[in-house]
Amino acid sequence: MIGDIEVTECEMVNQFVGSASEPAQFTRGYGLAFGNAERKAMGMALVDRSLRAGEFNEEVLSPAQQEEFVLAHCDNVEAAGFVSHLKLPHYVDFQSELELIRKLRKSAPQPESDQ
């Protein structure tokens, strides 16, 4: 072994409403930062998911989904404050989103099986 590197890793869960071909589901963003940098890893995970809108055939509606805007605004006081509020307990919000996903999936048309 040559040495150790401390990193902070984060996966953020985000809601994806679905499309005509895909049911409602949760998606993830991934962040990794050197050292003990929880906020930076969380912010990176949010940006990762946001910039992957094309993978999910989502319409790019917000500035956070545009690479140029993100690069110009991601390392400032406002960004740190936004990420800090995500560290608060959000289990109530998550439960309500989980219930919404279940309801959307239940009401979505089921694919026909080839039997």
What does the model show?
- The longest helix is centred in the C-terminal third of the chain and has 17 residues, at 91-107.
- This protein is of the alpha+beta class.
- A hairpin with an 8-residue loop joins β1 and β2 (25-34).
- The chain is built from four helices and two strands, in the order ββαααα.
- It has a two-stranded antiparallel ribbon with strand order 1-2.
- It has one domain (7-105).
- 41% of the residues lie in helices and 17% in strands.
- The protein has helices at 38-51, 67-73, 77-85, 91-107; strands at residues 7-16, 25-34.
Order of helices and strands: EEHHHH
Largest sheet: 2 strands, antiparallel
Report the total helices.
4
Tell me the overall shape: globular
Distance N terminus to C terminus? 56 Å
Classification by helices and strands: alpha+beta
* Overall pLDDT score: 76
What key phrases describe this protein's structure?
115 residues; alpha+beta; 41% helix; globular
SSE blueprint:
Blueprint: E1 7-16, E2 25-34, H1 38-51, H2 67-73, H3 77-85, H4 91-107
Question: Quick gist of this model?
Answer:
The chain has four helices and two strands, in the order ββαααα.
